[in-house]
Structure formats: structure tokens, C-alpha cells
Amino acid sequence: MANVIIYDTTLRDGSQTEGVSFSVNDKLRITEKLDELGVHYVEGGWPGSNPKDKEYFKQVQKKKLKNTVVAAFGSTRRSKITPAQDINLRELVKSQAKTITIFGKSWDFHVTDVLKTSLEENLAMISDSVKFLKKKKREVFYDAEHFFDAYKANPSYALKTILAAQSAGAEYIILCDTNGGSLPQEIEKAIKEIKPKIKVPLGIHCHNDLALAVANSLAAVESGCTQIQGTFNGLGERCGNADLTTIIGILQTKTKHKSIPSSKIKHLTEAAYFLSEMSNSKLPDNHAFVGHSAFAHKGGVHIDAMLKNSAAYEHLDPKVVGNHRRFLTSELAGKMPIIMKAEAMNVKLDKKSPQAKKMLKSLQLKEQKGYQFEAADASFEIFMKRELKKYQPFFKLEGFKSTVEKRHDGKVFAEASLRIRVKGKDEFSASDGDGPVDALDKALRKVLTKFYPNLAKMHLTDYKVRVIDSKSATAAKVRVLIESQDETDSWTTVGVHENIIEASWEALRDSIEYKLLKDLKK
Question: Are strands 412-422 and 425-433 parallel, antiparallel or unpaired?
């Protein structure tokens, strides 16, 4: 059974995502999480480019990693100087990383028009840099930048560049689709043509500008590459990099190739949400394998078939990758979501039982008032617990006040104060915020985290408002959906009222209650 080396570059390529910035501590925590998952290599950054990456390599030496080798990233020497004179190469050595990945130019156009040097000098830059690092007793991976574009433009020269790296002692040569514009058949053709001429193992590094980075990486593996470089959740500049979350899922469950240890695949969803949290970027609900909706079923026909045989509408058991099946509550689903949710609470309900009929009627009345539970599974679970008399609130609201003030300088200021009763104690809290809901959220969690510290690990990721009956104008009911997330999961809650603050409070309360309920199950 062939193994594929997983080389993660979330900490470097992933940090080039618009809006993403990792602190040193973030990078260390991500490294430890990927080590737990069994990722073979983690590229920690470019120590020659900034002080933060230098500090990371200093701190990561103190970590006792079990599965992961930390790699440092940099470039070949600059033109017309020796490797020993090149600050970048010296910093790579100083990083103390056992593995060093350097990139060099494969495309003659880049050599002459970007580096402004000769084709011969570029080959020397590649060779000299690899030899220099090998003399320092480092494992060296060579990233052939723009290789596939280079091979299309000038196949002879592109081949010379990777042969130069091979002759100098590189352990791995990674072929890069840097602009992300190649098709799977082009990747396959190029690799099959060059592989007989290369003695060292080949890897693949794809960008996602055509939404083909995963497909291209898999095509490369089928063509003989044994290392895949990418990022978790597809983070990266422009359209991102090859998504290792999806790639690992496919390799482990759909092919003869294996990557991380089989015992670790059940932690894939947890790792994806952890990376989402650390990068402060929402994991798409429809993300393959790990998304909140990846195994969600709405239609009554689908649900009925799933109950008979889960293979009817699922390509694998969600538990394999640490995810879970969801039956969405809607007018299309009937009583089945109620019965399934009740079973999860160890309550047996029959379709024809009076209790099931009563609960369905209660659900229909809620929907008539404007509630929509198909997109708010957490509120549905709380609704079910209340109906089954299995719900015990974690706190009780005594009252809240929310104000918004626009000042003479144009700034808008929001403030909220509230009184709650929690664990037999009366508590008061107040906070300001970007808006009234943000202020209310901060005031509530300010007091609750004293009693439930785990609330510090969750935050609101999305807030949506919809007017239910536009004919009523400003007196219309509004539906508020709040999406929340912690390091392992995401969930959505709903509130409905004529007053948007009251609707928001209801969704906010359910969101926090669900987090506390979820933690009780662990």
C-alpha cells in the first residue's frame, strides 16, 4: 500500500490568505495540532523574511513533536554572490530546522525578466544553494516554482533546473503549479514525461485558481508523486492552495494510497475546525468531509432512505472523519427529524405516537410564527429538550437593557447591561460593543465565563437578519440566525420577534446554552 507524504504549508502559504495573520503562539499551537494528526512535515515559515518566523523556529525547538518534522522555507541564493554570502541561506541554517525547502526558478521567462539574470546563472544558483545546505547536514527539498508553466514554454530548460537540484543532492523535488492554471491532464502528462529522467522522489504543490488544486494533486499522485504540499482548509493567496483536509480524506477513504496514520483520520474534522479558529476564517458549511452540511439531509425521501440504509445518500460513514450525520428539520422532513433527535436523547418515539404528533404540532406552530430550524440545528435540539422535559437552563435572565448612541463626531456607540441568575447567584454585567448585539454578547459572556470558563473558546462567526413579513413594514417580525464556533464544531441558532434585539437575544441565549450542553456530553 503506497504512502503519500503530507507536507503542510499552512503556516507560510496559508498565512498569505487575505485577512489571516498568525502570531508565534498561533503557529506553535497549529504545529502541535498537526503533529497530533500525524502530518509528516510542517513548514514553519521563512526565517530570513521576518522576526516572527525567526522566533517561531527558536520556540518550536522546545516542543517535543512525535510525528512531525518542522521545515524552514527560503529561496536559492541571489545572483552573483556565493551561498555563504546570502543572508537568506544563512538564516535557514540558523533556524536549526532539520529539513529545509528552497524554491528556485524553472521558467526561463522568470529568469530573464524577473531575476534579470542568465539561464546558466540560474542553474548555478540552484545547484550551489542545494550543495551549501547539504554540507550543513540538512535534508533538502527543492520546490520547482512555476514548473508546469515552465515545462509548457521551454521543456528542455525546465528539466535542466530540476536535474541541477537532483545532481546537487536534493532529497525531494516538488513540482509547483504556482499560478494554479494547469489542468489535471496537463499535470499528468508532464510528470509521466519527466519521471523516467528523475531518480529522486517527486512531490506536487498546487494552487487553486481553477478550483482544481485537489484534482491536480491527486492526478500527480496517480502519476508517481509521493509528496503532496498544501494547506488545511485550502488557505492561501488568491484562491488558496490544495486543500489538505480534502486530500487526506480522499487518500484515506477512496484510494489505495495512505497518508496520515489510519487511527488519526477520525480527528480530521476537529483539526479542520481548529485551523478555522486559529486563522479566524469560517470553514464553509459545504466543505467536503468536514463541513457542517457535509452529511446533512433535508428531503423526506432522502431521510426515509437513509434510515433504511445510510449508503443511500452518503459516500461514507461521517464518523470515519470525525463528522456526524444531521437530519434537517423542515416542512419536507415530517416527523423523522423529531424521532431521530429523540433517539439521540435516549427517548423512543413512534411516528404514530401521541407524543410525536404533539411535538410535530408544536414544531409547526413555531414555524408558523417564523422559526426555521433547518438552518438552526442547535435551537432545534434545545426545542426538543424542552418538549421532552430534558432541558435545564444554565442561567436565567432577570432583565437586560441595550442602548445605541450616535455622537456629534459621527461615531456610533452601543452599550448593554444585564442581570442574570446563575448557579444560585444574582449577577450584573455591562459592556460596550460595535453594535447592540455585540455589546449584549460581551456583557453576557463577561459574567458567564466566571462560572463556565469554556465559553472563552467560542465566538460568533455569522449574524443574519431576515424580515419575515415585509408587508408589515417596520412592525414586521424578523428572524435572526446566529452561527457560532469553537475549536471542534460550529452550530446555528434562531430567534424570532418583532423587536430585532429580542430576536437576537433569543438566538444568542440558545447559542451559549448549546455550547454548554455540548460540553456536558464530553
Answer: antiparallel
